[in-house]
Write a structure and sequence with these properties.
The complex is a heterodimer of chains A (733) and B (229). By secondary structure, chain A is of the alpha+beta class. Chain A contains 25 helices and 28 strands. Chain B is built from five helices and eleven strands, in the order βαββαβαββββαβββα. Classes of the chains: A alpha+beta (733), B alpha/beta (229).
Chain lengths: 733, 229
């Protein structure tokens, strides 16, 4: 060990002794501190996927419409007519817990860069948020800060934030989840990659200057939290959405020319990962003159420059003859433009500063020989079968429904999405609050449907079913607006993988996801893994968030959840078995979180979904809503509140002991359809032909939901309770 | 009708308003970059929504002093119709072309939603397509839309018929609940003395297409184009 590198320093960099030995072997000598820092971030869990890679390989990533699968800044799919959709989701969990506004804001900034780096103009943002118990002392502060941060960044950038999901659960008290997703559109023949080529080509740094913020963000994201973590506030980056807006416009202007050979944003591990990944993917070497890096502060060391996670920066390899053209564009947008190095054929990363070589690392081991672990795992205990023992027969469906509609996980998210500009761009066809957001592809008849989904309580009870269900629900949400689901991005949020039970959850969820993705022709094209989501040994619920994207053509054919017209029939697609295990009804009304999650029949899922999509395309569906959290009566209530009309639900008949299951059971693969009288017959014939279960629920009409037995729940009262939930939680009511 | 849309670094509704103007007039507006000291003769100058220069100082304060604004002011003072939407309204007040200021929303939060606006006067080139007193549905999306002016100024604006729009219930009644940002007297938009300059916080360009759920914005732009023909 060199005198500078102590075992303590190695440990502080999150490296094990075995990993350090690998570094010695790769270099053939001891590293200096800069080199140690570079290895530590490249081999961090965040950058190397060392615990998850073995499992990620199970996921299907190919389909005829996939242009680029995982491994690039974002995934790319073909949406026809020479256009492509580019999207990815990424976590910013730990920074957001420490500094909610900046943590969330820079999470949005980072994912936006991942998408426009590929040559796409971002058209929409989504997010998936998890907070602790509503009454936990930190929750209100965290919700307020995260929501303001997401809005603050996206609103200023002029990218509409159109969808997302939010859950509350005590398992997130010490470790919230902030996952941000961006969807962009590019020309399919103008996608930009991070693969460097051309010995001697200039390496150019553009965007904001480098400061000391965010050093070791990637390493922080790869370690557990403890009570001192809030003192890590200085490692949280500070966002500047205005600079990012300029960077977006400048990059897209340059991308319209043919100046760029390769481009990569400086996200986690900043200059290190961007330079190493570009050179590594191209099988090249790279030399950087660190004195030329635009700096915000004086006296920065090579270590700080390479590990800073200052935001709004890009690294690109240009064609030499395009230098001046490129410089002029960045000067027009008043951004730094600095040629800081060149590509070589040495296969090495060489850094110089002040006339001295400050690092010299062979790239192959740095990129390809990161340790991979097949960590021991323990299969989670099978959930005990759910027994309805102790559940009194449901006698008051009205108060049960109202309680659910006002509960933290089901109440209206309006308080949140009104803080997001969800209309800028003037292409938002379906705003937040429906099953999926729908955003028109500018200047065309096409539209993209998008959603984020996960039901962590299902994943905790049975990881495999939970993983599959997250995929199925995302698929179902896209189908419910009439879109053809095309591909997903995923954000795997789990606890410490060095604990076998966490690895069991991770492996189980991925197996379930893989199965569902295959069954539904719904490949994974990008993603992010966030492990070590624990504080003081308490792990979050396993939360594999699925971001799904589908195509609607023409967009005008989309369905919405709102009831449209009195007299229309209401039909339920799919089987109801009254599954109450892990339901919100059980949790909110009986304080129980037990039993297995609802079983998933992927064949039925596909059959029912394809039927629904075909009926929407045929113009037979006036409104459509999938049945998920809270079950059938909650779905109907949501449709009534959106449309401002009630319904007579004479079809919701069951013996007292089975009533709760019928109204609030969370059986999968179900949709409620509103259909005009004249369309009901052909729709029913088609359902019979396809073997799709169809049940008549009642008719749209009046100003209340009317259940058999004379239970009457007014739309106005439902709305009042539903809208009051979140403002009350946030202390705004 | 030929329009110019001024583009500041940080503008982000420039494309949206250009699309709405083109749909209403059949003519693409010219997009004018903030550093240009001069631009071609046009019938209408539009300052779009967004976050000019990041709005890191007071909203609109930096943009009001950009090179292009000297020319915009000169033309507005000569009577060239000038429309500021959202951030554009903020810039117009900072540039002194309209009185008052847009302060932080009373909720302290960004607000994005549809609101109803009552047309206070149909007697202007911007509102001739509407009847005085009718209401329209337009979206807002801002953090700083809380219109403020001293009482004398507000009285004068009212007395001179220079309040263009007020936030209202769908039936036209003025309530606190209809006001999304705490604006004085529910003011959503105002004119200069000659009614050639209009600033408004709502975004008519965001509901100017039935595919987006409304066309009250189309009426605004069509009426304006008609009046300028």
């Amino acid at each position: 060990m060199s005198p500078e590198i102590t075992p303590n320093l190695v440990a502080e960099h999150g490296l094990t002794n075995e990993e350090y030995q690998r570094i010695l072997k790769a270099l053939g000598r001891a590293p200096n501190p800069t080199e140690l820092g570079i290895f530590s971030v490249m081999w961090s869990e965040h950058c190397s996927y060392k615990s998850s890679k073995r499992w990620l390989r199970l996921l299907p990533t190919e389909a005829p419409w996939v242009i680029q699968g995982p491994g690039e800044n974002a995934g790319v799919i073909d949406i026809g007519d020479g256009l492509a959709a580019v999207f990815k989701i990424e976590s910013h969990n730990h920074p957001s817990f420490i500094e909610p506004y900046q943590g969330a804001a820079t999470g949005v900034g980072g994912i936006l860069r991942d998408v426009f780096t590929m040559g796409a103009r971002p058209i929409a943002n989504l997010n998936a948020l998890r907070f602790g118990a509503p009454d936990h002392p930190k929750t209100r502060h965290l919700v307020g800060g995260v929501v303001a941060g997401i809005g603050g960044y996206g609103n200023c950038m002029g990218i509409p934030t159109v969808g997302g999901e939010v859950n509350f659960h005590p398992a997130y008290n010490g470790n919230i989840l902030v996952n941000a997703m961006t969807v962009g559109v590019a020309r399919a023949d103008k996608i930009f990659y991070a693969r460097a080529a051309g010995v001697g080509n200039p390496v150019v740094y553009v965007g904001a200057k480098t400061g000391r913020d965010g050093i070791h963000g990637a390493t922080m994201a790869s370690a557990e939290f403890n009570s001192d973590s809030e003192e890590k506030r200085p490692t949280v980056q500070v966002g500047d959405p205005f600079t990012e807006k300029l960077l977006l416009e400048a990059c897209l202007e340059l991308m319209a020319t043919d100046a760029i050979v390769a481009i990569q944003d400086m996200g986690a591990a900043g200059l290190t990962s961007s330079s190493v990944e570009m050179a590594g993917k191209g099988g090249m070497g790279i030399e950087l003159e660190l004195d030329r890096v635009p700096m915000r502060e004086t006296g920065m060391t090579p270590y700080e420059l390479m590990l800073s996670e200052s935001q709004e920066r890009m690294l690109m390899v240009l064609k030499p003859e395009a230098r001046e053209k490129a410089r002029a564009i960045f000067e027009k947008w008043e951004l730094d433009f600095a040629e800081i190095g060149r590509l070589t054929d040495t296969g090495r990363l060489v850094l110089r500063m002040g006339g001295a070589t400050v690092a010299d690392i062979p790239l192959a081991p740095l990129v390809n020989e990161a340790p991979l672990y097949d960590r021991p795992r323990a299969a989670p205990p099978a959930p005990r079968p759910f027994g309805a023992t102790g559940l009194q027969p449901l006698t008051d469906p009205k108060s049960a429904l109202l309680k659910l509609l006002g509960s933290p996980d089901l109440c209206s998210r309006r308080w949140i999405w009104e803080q997001y500009d969800h209309m800028v761009g003037a292409d938002t066809m379906q705003r937040p609050g429906g099953d999926a957001a729908v955003v028109r592809v500018h200047g065309t008849q096409k539209a993209l449907a998008m959603t984020t989904d996960c039901t962590p309580r299902y994943c905790f009870a049975d990881p495999k079913i939970g993983g599959a269900q997250a995929v199925a629900e995302a698929w179902r949400n896209l189908v419910a607006v009439g879109a053809k689901p095309l591909a997903v991005t995923n954000n795997l949020n789990f606890g410490n993988p060095e604990r076998p039970e966490i690895m069991g959850q991770l492996a189980g969820c991925i197996e379930g996801m893989a199965e569902a993705c295959r069954a539904l022709d719904f490949p994974v094209i990008s993603g992010n893994v966030s492990l070590y989501n624990e504080t003081e040994g308490k792990a979050i619920l396993p939360t594999p968030v699925i971001g799904g994207v589908g195509l609607l053509e023409p967009g005008a054919r989309m369905a919405t959840v709102a009831f449209k017209e009195a007299g229309h029939l209401l039909l339920l697609v799919g089987d109801s078995r009254g599954h109450l295990g892990q339901s919100l009804f059980l949790r909110e009304l009986h304080g129980r979180e037990d039993g297995p999650p609802p079983p998933l029949d992927l064949q039925a899922e596909r059959r029912n979904g394809e039927f629904v999509r075909a009926q929407i395309a045929a113009g037979r569906v006036a409104a459509c809503h999938d049945v998920s959290d809270g079950g059938l009566l909650v779905a109907l209530a949501e449709m009534a509140m959106a449309g401002g009309i009630g319904a007579e639900l004479e079809g919701l008949n069951a013996p007292p002991a089975a009533l709760a299951g019928l109204l609030f059971g969370e059986d999968q693969a179900r949709y409620v359809l509103e259909v005009a009288e004249g369309d009901a017959e052909p729709l029913a014939q088609e359902a019979a032909r396809k073997g799709v279960p169809l049940r008549r629920l009642g008719r749209v009409g009046s100003d209340a939901l009317t259940l058999p037995g004379g239970h009457l729940i007014s739309v106005a009262e439902m709305r009042r309770v539903h809208e009051a939930g979140l403002p009350a939680l946030m202390g705004a009511a | 009708m030929k329009a110019a849309v001024i583009v500041f670094p940080g503008s982000n509704c420039d494309r949206d308003v250009a699309v709405a103007l083109e749909q209403a007039s059949g003519r693409k507006p010219v997009m004018v970059w903030h550093r240009e000291g001069d631009f071609e003769q046009v019938d209408l100058v539009v300052l779009p929504g967004g976050f000019a220069y990041g709005d890191y100082l007071r909203v609109g304060a930096m943009a009001a002093h950009s090179p292009v604004m000297r020319e915009v002011k000169r033309r507005a003072e000569r009577g060239v119709p000038t429309l500021g939407i959202c951030n554009g309204f903020q810039v117009l007040t900072e540039a002194g072309l309209l009185p008052g200021a847009l302060m932080r929303n009373a909720s302290l939060q960004f607000v994005c939603k549809d609101v109803h606006c009552r047309i206070e006067t149909g007697q202007s080139l911007y509102t001739s397509a509407f009847a005085s007193g009718e209401t329209v549905r337009w979206p807002v999306g801002h953090h700083d839309g809380n219109y403020f002016a001293d009482r004398n100024t507000l009285d004068r604006l009212e007395g001179e018929g220079r309040i263009a729009f007020r936030y209202a219930e769908p039936d036209g009644s003025l309530t606190e609940g209809a006001n999304p940002n705490g604006s004085a007297r529910n003011i959503a938009g105002i004119f200069n003395e000659t009614k050639s300059v209009l600033g408004l916080m709502p975004h008519p360009e965001r509901l100017a297409d039935s595919a987006l759920g409304g066309t009250d914005g189309t009426r605004f732009f069509k009426g304006l184009v008609e009046a300028l023909r």
